[in-house]
Amino acid sequence: MKQLLKQGLLVYVCLFVLTGQAIADALTEQNQASKGIDLKVELENAAKSIRLLAAQGNADAQAKLGSMYEMGLGVPQDYKEAAKWYRLAAEQGVVLAQTQLGSMYGKGQGVPQDYKEAVKWLRQAAEQGAVAAQFNLAMMYDTGNGVTQDYKEAVKWVRLVAEQDNALLAAYTIPAQSNLGSMYEMGQGVPQDYKEAMMWFRLAAERGYATAQFNLGMMYDTGKGVPQDYREAMKWYRLAAEQGDAQAQSNLGLLYDTGKSVPQDYKEAVKWYRLAADQGAASALTNLAVSYQKGQGVLQDYKEAVKLFRLAAEQGNAQAQADLAVMYSGGLGVQQSHVLAHMWINIAAANSINNTLQESTAKFRENVALKMTADQIAKAQELAKKCTANKFKGC
Predict the structure, then answer these.
(1) How close are the terminal C-alpha atoms of the chain, in Å?
(2) 20-129 has which CATH code?
(3) How far apart are alpha carbons 101 and 87 in whole angstroms?
(4) 259/284 Cα distance (integer angstroms)
(5) N or C: which end of the chain has fewer CB within 10 A?
(6) What would the pLDDT profile of 372-384 be if each residue is shown by its tens digit?
(7) Beta-carbon neighbour count of residue 93 at 10 Å?
(8) Among the listed residues 289, 284, 205, the one whose alpha carbon sits nearest the alpha carbon of residue 251
(9) The 3-state secondary structure of 22-68, one letter per residue
(10) pTM of this prediction?
(11) All structural domains of the chain with their residue ranges
(12) pLDDT tens per residue across span 229-241
């Protein structure tokens, strides 16, 4: 069975990036280079001057020197030195330094990874209005890294970023709008509200953000907050897919596969499945495997189908695990094995949250068990436990 990827995605794509001032400095240096100035010499001279000021306790110079060490501008890249100078500036209240020091603790760059310490510095910067810090602090509350997971706090901070109306902050505001839409869609930290989710997704999607375009496509595809509209779904999936979004590519392929809003076209479906599968998307791997299993858009090839099912199954995809059981049961592309068929259907049943799949796996398991001895069933159950413990690898 082919799959529609349904979940709304909460994505913090700008996790721990350089803040605006450091970027602006880099751009200034690039502009100087374009005027024929020896960039390397200029940066080395600048580093010497800034170091003198930093050593005298100048907080802005300390922050700048931290940036230069972090980026390797005028000095060898050295995260420990960057963290050292950021800390000195951060302790004097420099927002840039607080944000970047929090970032370094979050990533474990130049300092041992310490989410609590990251939260401490990010909060200080966020409370002073630093958008990058607010964005990342929202992520920490959403994931529960360094703090008790608290969706309401996550919403509070991500909303502050999403409501910013400043083109210079688009690297943060647009993903924040998409994330806020996801929180409304899932009812995390706010009452579930599909129309509100649609509003935030659309704001980010119309500004070209692929994740929001995918999520907006999903809302139209499933009829959440709007009348179901496959043409609109395809429009937004395509925009995201053309930017390389694997989930959108997979769902776009499924629309071609099923002929929803367009003439059914298996070859076009396979094209989009393959693009997503090449990025490791489990739903696309499963859908592409089914195409090979049935010979839709490609020459029928059971071995290729098994290979793709296995790749998806190893990611924990319950549908792929169930399909792999079918292949083992029928000896399609693999040597027939009721034991391995029973193993995979056991795993699929345990992983499935889909009622329809749960029912089908239960029936399939009963049918396979009728062809097995008690010892074989016991062996299959033991193999299923081992496979699950190994996170579905090497089964």
Answers:
(1) 22
(2) 1.25.40.10
(3) 7
(4) 17
(5) N
(6) 999 999 999 999 9
(7) 12
(8) 284
(9) HHHHHHHHHHHHHCCCCHHHHHHHHHHHHHHHHHCCCHHHHHHHHHH
(10) 0.85
(11) 20-129, 321-395
(12) 999 999 999 999 9
